[in-house]
Amino acid sequence: VVIQEDATKCIRGVQYDPASNQMVGFVQSLDNRGLPEILAFPATTEAAIRSYFDTKERSEYVYCILAKPLMESASAFVLCCYGTNNKFKADQTKARWQYQLECAAAHNIMIRVFSSDGDSRCLSAMRERMFQACGNPLAWHFWFRAELDLTVVCVQDPTHVATKLRNLLLRNKILCVGKYFISVNHIQFMMDNTSQDQHKLREEDINPKDRMNFKSAEKLFSERVSTLLALKTDDADATCVFLEMANGATEAFFDRKLQPLQRITMRLLSLVME
Q1: Which of 102, 122, 156 corresponds to the end of one domain?
Q2: Residue of 19, 196, 254, 271 with fewest CB within 10 Å of its CB?
Q3: Which domain covers residue 248, as residue numbers?
């Protein structure tokens, strides 16, 4: 299975759960396994409930952990979902992953991938889990050598990679590449001078307000758009290269028809372009 996790903003609120006799909606502390402490807010008395509202912080985020079997037809399911203030450390993330590995192994389930967004704490846990630094020979002092653990692979969620590349393209600042520049204005010009049935884009696709619009990222990074951009817009070479790089960085993960060597080639080419 693949383990995926992320936090999303929520409206702060507290509810009573009669099944467990708990007050739900306060921030739960993480234990030594990196998991929230359960049954932490029992509704035993009116005074106890009042003390929770007076002294405890209400959750601003919901942290969700999902498991996705590698079978294409199998759906993902929720392993854990809890309220948080999004304050945690990389060590707690590592402890949670280790506990999940142990629990899965006890039921003959193999976790192959841990996936998350670009949160610095998760990325730190990924780096420490996958790369164990070795002593470098003095002659190699410009290089970093590591023992790579491939039993469990840690990756940044490609959906977040796609939306972050889209946000980078749509921001107001122009990205300079040598004497060339990357700008969404090139795409706007192409849309204004090409029929919609050719590029398939809408104005919403280049609106930066919706920062997690993955469907728009897919459309922007399609080969159709980069090809039209090269034909219809002058001085858009750098923008075309950016779109091709973004296409390789995302399609290498999402296109189910690709062979492993094709995926590696696309990913390496996108890294070279970066």
Answers
A1: 156
A2: 19
A3: 159-273
